[in-house]
């Protein structure tokens, strides 16, 4: 089947004082109709920047897509001008954000904000839009939708606001929904409800979803494929079943160990040491080297490419031919160098 | 407050009317009779009592009722300040939007320089400059007054005549407020443009214009309402000098004449009026807040 969305070699950087900081670097993935792709990674790994890049919502003027292609229905979105991309937004591709509390405009009613997309893209009359908007509110599980329709965002709870965002995003029945951590800011029971809602709506409308999250539980619940991101790179990319059965990248393994699940409930949770460095501190070699327990001299010399191994795409030297011939002595040395770099945060380019 | 400041100024109305033929002794007697020698607080309470009964007093020199005098001057001042007020917001807000949306580009820098000049230039200097250029040099506009005396215009011609007279003083009066409104609108809009809901509006596919003018501006104008409320007493205050420069027959020139003549009752009444304007401005701002920001309910 043809891909609905194909991101090829995306590079998005932020520029300040003439210095380039690549937040997303060489990211490629694809999404078929009706499919859900989960993008996971810790805070700062570049998930939001990736998702914002698709609709060119990166903060101007210092944020810029430097390289790559974003093919939507085989059309490169990056070649569209401002007017053309605005016709795609909200109609063919829509987006919900991480922050439900601040993502709605405080001075307009909920109804006004939902109707706005409908009248804009479908050219329906105000009366028609009102009927549809109330239907939409009902569909996303908002009780007494007629009353909510006339209320302002501050009169709604976080969970309700995220439902409104979903109603707004699905108002024009888009082909693709980008959901950037739709549940992160909500408490656990509400998270489960929102996730359930998204799954149902997806079945109903056959919408493809790009689901951004740092919660592997969410991924196992809702996604078909997974891409793991680390410091602007995809380090592992595979289908959900393979991923949970047999995670290969040391980072993925670390992430899995750090969440409570049925399989490792008895073991102690072992979060990965340290945190994602800032992209301005990228050094040569594997970007995960500073936190990897397997680090070897070769990891520091050169960054591993994204390699295809059976069901996986993986960016780690452990899965290359040369790993078996490696000099075991160098492992200790590699660890030292990586640790040294981590603490001094020297910037090489 | 006003009362005590006035008393600190040397001189009293009697001295400005001194007729050299009147002896110091007679003068003393007259002052006694009119109550000038009473202790200050007694004078003040006397005044308060009258005001509470709706009597603003009478001018010292001619004995005209002060209330009537002010009412005669009110329309002219309302015309001038009203025009200036409309100018301040109808020019200041769009310039602020333009400046914010062209940030760090030439138009923004030009407008920034303009606003600093607008805020800091003294109004008499700007006013006299305008008169020199537009009235004396080019002869396009009249130098002073509110209508052409003796022209007997009616209808549309009268309106045009008013307009010609009001445009210069209103510009002089409005200039600092235009500059302030512009800067406020600019910074407020820039702040709003960084907010999450603007990204949402963009993500919906709205045009750039709709994002700016519907989603951003409505939010950005909330802080500008403060300037709106403050500008009312500010403009009436500014009218003193402006009316004086352009010989505009309003309350401002009345005020200046009264200060020179030490007409306490008039000055007191004008100041009372100004304080009421401050309160009115605040009230109006509060109403406008509630109207534009649904999060505020009284
Ligand atoms: N507007 C911006 N200006 C400068 N740098 C930015 C900006 N937005 C993101 N970055 C940088 O890009 C990197 C990736 O950020 P991003 O927001 O994509 O992370 P994330 O994976 O979404 O994390 P989180 O889970 O916290 O949302 C970070 O290092 C961040 O500092
Ligand atoms: S390449 Fe080396 S440092 Fe990077 S993840 Fe693999 S083993 Fe660890
Ligand atoms: Mg994010």
Explain what this protein looks like in three dimensions.
The mean pLDDT of chain A is 87. The radius of gyration of chain A is 22 Å and the shape is elongated. Chain A has helices at residues 47-54, 82-88, 110-122, 126-139, 145-149, 158-170, 188-205, 216-222, 240-245, 250-257, 297-301, 329-344, and strands at 3-16, 19-32, 36-40, 63-72, 75-76, 93-96, 176-180, 208-213, 225-230, 233-239, 307-309, 312-314. Chain A has a domain at 248-343. In chain A, strands 6-7-8-3-9-10-12-11 form an eight-stranded mixed beta sheet, with helices on both faces. With 349 residues, chain A is α/β, with parallel strands linked by helices. Chain A is built from twelve helices and twelve strands. Chain B has one domain (66-296): Orthogonal Bundle (MetI-like fold). Chain B is mostly helical and 298 residues long. Mean pLDDT of chain B is 80; it is low at 14-18. The longest helix of chain B is centred in the middle third of the chain and has 39 residues, at 155-193. In chain B, 76% of the residues lie in helices and 0% in strands. Classes of the chains: A alpha/beta (349), B mainly alpha (298). The A-B interface holds A 55, 57, 82-83, 86-91, 94-95, 97, 99, 102-109, 116-117, 120-121, 152, 154, 165, 168 and B 195-197, 199-208, 215, 218-219, 222, 292-295. The structure holds adenosine-5'-triphosphate (ATP), iron/sulfur cluster and magnesium ion. Magnesium ion binds at residues 47-48, 98, 180-181 of chain A.
Highlighted features:
heterodimer, A: 349 residues, eight-stranded mixed sheet, four-stranded antiparallel sheet, 12 helices, 12 strands, elongated, B: mainly alpha, binds adenosine-5'-triphosphate, binds iron/sulfur cluster, nucleotide-binding (chain A), cell membrane (chain A), ATP binding (chain A), P-loop_NTPase (chain A)
What is the total tally of β strands of chain B?
0
Low-confidence stretches of chain A: none
Low-pLDDT residue spans of chain B: 14-18
**DSSP helix fraction of chain A:** 25-40%
Biggest beta-sheet profile of chain B: none
* CATH class descriptor of chain B: Mainly Alpha
> How far apart, in Å, are the first and last alpha carbons of chain B?
32 Å
| Overall number of strands of chain A | 12
Number of helices of chain B: 12
Radius of gyration of chain A, in Å, reads: 22 Å
The proportion of strand residues of chain B reads: under 5%
Average pLDDT number of chain B: 80
Helix and strand content put the structural class of chain A at alpha/beta
Gyration radius of chain B, in Å: 24 Å
CATH architecture of chain B: Orthogonal Bundle
In total, the number of domains of chain B comes to 1
What is the general shape of chain A? elongated
């Amino acid at each position: 089947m043809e891909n609905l969305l194909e991101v090829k070699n995306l590079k998005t950087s932020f520029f300040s004082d003439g210095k380039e900081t690549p937040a997303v670097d060489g990211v490629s993935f694809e999404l078929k109709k009706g499919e859900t792709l989960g993008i996971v990674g810790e805070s700062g790994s570049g998930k939001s920047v990736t998702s914002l890049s698709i609709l060119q919502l990166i903060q101007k003027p210092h944020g810029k897509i430097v390289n790559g292609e974003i093919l939507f229905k085989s059309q490169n979105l990056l070649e569209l001008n401002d007017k053309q991309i605005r016709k795609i937004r909200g109609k063919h591709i829509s987006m919900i954000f991480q922050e439900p509390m601040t993502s709605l405009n405080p001075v307009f009613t909920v109804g006004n904000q939902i109707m706005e997309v409908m009248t804009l893209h479908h050219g329906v009359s105000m009366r028609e839009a009102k009927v549809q908007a109330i239907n939409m509110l009902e569909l996303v599980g908002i009780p007494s939708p007629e009353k909510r329709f006339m209320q302002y965002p501050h009169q709604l709870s976080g969970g309700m606001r995220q439902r409104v965002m979903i109603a707004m995003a699905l108002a024009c029945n888009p082909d693709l929904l980008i959901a950037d951590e739709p549940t992160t800011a909500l408490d656990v029971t509400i998270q489960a409800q929102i996730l359930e809602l998204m799954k149902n709506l997806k079945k109903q409308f056959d919408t493809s979803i790009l689901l951004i999250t740092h919660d592997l539980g969410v991924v196992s619940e809702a996604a078909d494929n997974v891409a793991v991101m680390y410091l602007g790179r995809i380090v592992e990319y595979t289908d959900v079943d393979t991923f949970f059965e047999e995670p290969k990248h040391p980072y993925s393994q670390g992430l899995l160990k750090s969440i409570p699940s049925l399989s490792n409930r008895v073991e102690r949770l072992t979060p990965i040491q340290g945190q994602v460095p800032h992209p301005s501190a990228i050094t040569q070699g594997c970007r995960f080297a500073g936190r990897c327990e397997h680090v070897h001299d070769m990891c520091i010399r050169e960054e591993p490419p994204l390699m295809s191994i059976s069901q996986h795409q993986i960016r780690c030297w452990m899965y290359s031919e040369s790993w078996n011939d490696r000099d075991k002595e160098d492992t200790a040395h590699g660890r030292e160098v990586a640790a040294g770099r981590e603490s001094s945060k020297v910037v090489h380019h | 407050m006003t009362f005590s400041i006035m008393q600190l100024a040397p001189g009293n109305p009697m001295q400005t009317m001194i007729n050299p033929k009147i002896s110091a002794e007679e003068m003393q007697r007259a002052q006694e009779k009119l109550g000038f020698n009473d202790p200050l607080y007694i004078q003040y309470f006397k005044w308060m009592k009258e005001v509470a009964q709706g009597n603003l007093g009478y001018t010292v020199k001619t004995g005209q009722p002060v209330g009537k005098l002010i009412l005669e001057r009110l329309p002219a001042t309302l015309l001038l300040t009203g025009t200036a007020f409309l100018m301040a917001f109808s020019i200041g807000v769009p310039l602020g939007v333009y400046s914010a949306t062209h940030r760090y580009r030439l138009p923004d820098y030009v407008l920034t320089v303009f606003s600093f000049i607008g805020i800091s230039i003294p109004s008499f200097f700007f006013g006299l400059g305008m008169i020199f250029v537009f009235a004396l040099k080019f002869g396009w506009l009249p130098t002073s007054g509110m209508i052409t005396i003796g022209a007997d215009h009616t209808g549309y011609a009268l309106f045009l005549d008013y307009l010609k007279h009001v445009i210069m003083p209103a510009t002089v009066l409005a200039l600092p407020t235009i500059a302030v409104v512009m800067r406020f609108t600019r910074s407020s809009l820039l702040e709003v443009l960084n907010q999450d809901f603007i990204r949402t509006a963009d993500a919906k596919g709205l045009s750039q214009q709709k994002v700016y003018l519907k989603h951003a501006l409505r939010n950005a104008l909330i802080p500008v309402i403060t300037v709106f409320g403050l500008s009312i007493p500010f403009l009436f205050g500014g009218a003193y000098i402006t009316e004086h420069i352009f010989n505009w027959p309003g309350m401002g020139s009345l005020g200046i004449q009264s200060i020179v003549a030490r007409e306490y009752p008039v000055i007191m009444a004008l100041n009372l009026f100004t304080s009421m304007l401050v309160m009115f401005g605040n009230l109006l701002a509060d109403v406008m807040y509630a109207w534009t920001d649904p999060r505020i309910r009284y």
